[in-house]
Amino acid sequence: MMTSTIPAIVDVGSGTPQPRSLDARRGRGDRVFHGVTSLSGVVVLAIMGAVGLFLSIQATQALRSTGLSFLTTAEWQPDRGKFGIAAVLVGTVLIALVAVVIALPISLGAALFITEVAPTWLRSTLVAVVDLMAAVPSVVYGLWGLFLLQGQIIGLSHWLNGWFGWIPFFDVAGANPGSPLSSMTVYTASTFVAGMVVAMMVMPIQCVVMREVFSQVPIGEREGAFALGSTRWGMIRVVALPFGRGGIIGGTMLGLGRALGETIAVVLIISPRFDVNFHILEAGSNSVSSLIANRYSESSGFGLSALMAAGLALFAVTLVVNFTASWFVARSRSGASS
Amino acid sequence: MNQHSRSTRPSWAHVAVLVLAGLAALAFGSCAVQTARALSYQRISGEGSSWAANAIDAMRVNVKQFGITVDFNPSGSTSGRKNFLNGTVDFAASDIPFQLAPEDGSAPENPAPNSYAYMPVTAGGTAFMYNLQINGKRVTNLRLSGENVAKIFTGAISTWNDPAIQADNPGLTMPARTVVAVVRSDGSGSSAQFTKWMIDRQPAIWNDYCNRSGRAPACGETSFYPTIPGMIAQSGDLGIAGYVSQGFAEGAIGYVNYSYALGTQFPVVKVLNAAGFYTEPTPQNVAVSLLQAKINGDENNPATYLTQDLSAVYTDTDSRSYQLSSYSYLILPTKVAGQFNLDKGTTLGAFSYYAMCQAQQQSASLGYSPMPINLVQAGFDQILKIPGVVAQDINIAACKNPTFAADGTNLLADNAPKPQECDRQGSLQCANGTGGMSNVPTAVLAAATGAPAPTATTPAAATPAAGAATPAGGAATPVAGAATTPAGATPVAGAGTPVAGAGTPAGATPAGATPAAAAGTPAAAAGTPVAGTGTPAAGAKTPAAGAATPGALAPASAGAPQVASSPAVGGVVAVGGVVAVDGSSAVGGAPAVDAATAGGTPTADGVAPDAGALADGSATGLVPVEGAAAPEAPLGAVAPPLAANCDVDTGLCGAATGGAAAPVAAGLVAGAITPTTLSEAGSSVPLMLLIVALTLGLVLAPALAWRYFSQAGST
């Protein structure tokens, strides 16, 4: 129902030519649709803005009292004025990094297998399974990690500590991996175990993004590679991976964003500690979201404000990570990197 | 045929209609009932102490039958108090009162004055549950002094073979395993009670730790346990118990309510008390300990009324005392505010009445200690302050609270068995298990002569009925330990030995009778249920005669308490646990202990407390012996369930709920039960796996099917 009115013809002969202005008059359906969609977009932005604003306002009281030391203090005793996010932020990032390092090869492999290797009947099944993994609630992952995975995985922690203990990351205070009586408890409730569980949760997200990108690899280039005598691996290496680079990075970072904010699974597994701890195999860890979950119901007034400040920091970090990720994904979707 | 089918068709339809109508009627009927109930009681919610959660949860489940729905979230005392102040829950459960002036630097809690009332709801012991093995066998009889407990939870002791721990446990070869202290990560009343105890008893160790953990200078009692690297912090009692009970958590020790150790079937530490005995927080021992608790009686100040001062509990010199005993409270609203209205008050009142009265019967079976009569009465008065409450006129004797005695004393405490001689500081420790593994003894290093005991175990296993013969003299103790032993192994014989020695001074007759008595004794422990059924065995007379010798009285003060306590630790009590004194012979104060009567007639149990009084005249001589002959009618009704059906050790009664039943029979099938109990600890993982697999399968199968069929349809 779009109608255009042609404006009156002005003096054509004289002066510089003027572009004709088009006045598209929309019909009602268009206007409703336009209104609804733009409203949705605005609402999403408004909600994000409101969250940020709310956190900022709530956090002011705490941030004003500590200033910049909020970023450098490791302890969390807000009622005594000694609190900061140094420990929890480091813990958050470490858990997320462990998760991504573990999830990246799995999700990349799964995505490549699904798009390039798997037979059709298996492909749809695998897609369903991976989607299902994304749908399992995080508390289920947490319980699974706590009661099943942890008991099994500390053997790996022990092994890593025994052979790679000289790397500072794999050092564990109080552990004696050589002794048969050494207690396995020093490896429990660690950043590594938490990261492992979170990896299972971010893996499907990464996989979905990568699969999408790989499925967009131009058929011509793919066939061309085969026509030139390339093996399947050769095709993947020279066509699929370069084309999907943006998607791989973007998917990974989306996963990182989720890993940063993961709460319940982490709460269930870690033993909270408040010192900057880079030993990922060592018992005890912490993250911003688990700190909030643990302390929220016990805090009031100033303590709550301090938690809001921690939440604000996490919000900012996640926002940056996610924006970067979506930028990468968008770039890759355009096909610019192929 | 055709005719027939035509005629049946309408009848089928008729039936279907009838069924539907019936279903509708049923549904409507149940709806109507639901509404009727909903009208009388509104759903209420509470939050708080995970220490008391097992008791509150049992109450919560039980009041459902009256149409009262109570939600309870065991998120920790601190969280409970906070949310009570925020008005998001109707009542709170807290081990400690509102922290008006906290000593740990946290923000003070500011409840509106006169808006709340404390009601003690249950009592219990903060137990130290541990996961430790020696040579692949779980240790169940660990003992620790208060100093060592404090050192463990402050990181001052780092391995289990520390000389200080070894000194507490001469009968064990402690392994060189790392000690992992598991503490609470959330705000917790048990952390507060524990730190308060440490501050009072081990100030130097605590202050040093407070400095090291960065908490100084605010080193007072704290709900937020400070941690140092190497410690594990878990949320809630369930979190600690869950961590400690994991297979990998060997070397871990955590503080939880005693009930959690029973629930997870793990042992607890026997802690050294001021009398020089290592005790565990059984309901009886807690009842004894809390006789020393100073309850604030200033009714005019609701901010402190009924709150507890436990400093005298820490220093109690009763040999049965457990230092970390305490009461836990419900915080009741006394004003209508926010979401709390009069209807909810009615419900909360009814729930509170139930909690103070009927629920106390069950406490011991869960691992808690029932409220004594004075606190129950005070609790009733507190309930009246709830707005909207419908006052109940309760005949307090009908509550069947096992602590109530006619003369106002605490029956449970009076009856509490004395610790065994092997629990005394300096002695070779008892072999008997503790907590949730009371039926699994741990072999202790054999000391000298262990001759009689191995033979003793045989009759125990073979003829439980002969057990009626038993309760003679101090000899009972060692073999009770042996009775629970699966095999008549020598080490256990060693365990028995020293105590047998302790029994010996009873005089010529009992001493001479020792082997025989020993032979009979385990059977007594094991056979108690049988004896309880009312068949006084003829053989019973023999040991009784031995004990009746006047000379036996002298050792009775030393030996008899052991008799009382032995089954308690062995976990096989019932009648045998309280050496019942035949009322008729006891009246004159004569020291005659008639075992036949005791074993044979559970009805005599109303008299039972006097056995304790007689045997240990010095400590608990509260119950007049003469009074024993004629107990008040309601109390006579109260006593038998406790003494006859209940296991004095674990408090597990014959009619106990769920998995609690097994330990009662433990004495009979101790040997058979041992392996199962041990393997049960690891069975949770496959179960978990199964559940996860089932869950996944339930979701996965339809998803795959859907995927498959949609694929098939499109191509």
Q: Mean pLDDT of chain B, as a whole number? A: 68
Rounded to the nearest angstrom, the radius of gyration of chain B is 28 Å
Would you identify the CATH architecture of chain A? Orthogonal Bundle
Helix fraction of chain A? 55-70%
Q: What is the number of E strands of chain B?
A: 15
What is the typical, i.e. mean, pLDDT of chain A? 88
Walkthrough of the structure:
The complex is a heterodimer of chains A (338) and B (715). Helix content of chain A is 66%, strand content 2%. Chain A is built from 11 helices and 4 strands; from the N terminus they run ββαββαααααααααα. Chain A has 338 residues and is mostly helical. In chain A, the strands form 2 sheets. In chain A, strands 1-2 form a two-stranded antiparallel ribbon. A two-stranded antiparallel ribbon of chain A has the order 3-4. The longest helix of chain A is centred in the first third of the chain and has 39 residues. The two termini of chain A are 41 Å apart. Chain A has a single domain, classed as Orthogonal Bundle (MetI-like fold), CATH 1.10.3720.10. The model of chain A has no long low-confidence stretch (mean pLDDT 88). Chain B is of the alpha/beta class and 715 residues long. In chain B, the strands form 4 sheets. Chain B has an 8-stranded mixed sheet with strand order 2-1-3-15-4-10-8-9. A 3-stranded mixed sheet of chain B has the order 7-11-12. Chain B has 29 helices and 15 strands. Helices cover 46% and strands 9% of the residues of chain B. Chain B is globular. At the A-B interface, helix 3 and helix 4 of A face helix 3, strand 9 and helix 29 of B.
Provide keyphrases for this structure.
heterodimer, A: 338 residues, mainly alpha, MetI-like fold, two-stranded antiparallel sheet, 11 helices, 4 strands, 2% strand, flat, B: 715 residues, alpha/beta, eight-stranded mixed sheet, three-stranded mixed sheet, 29 helices, 15 strands, 46% helix, 9% strand, globular, disordered N terminus
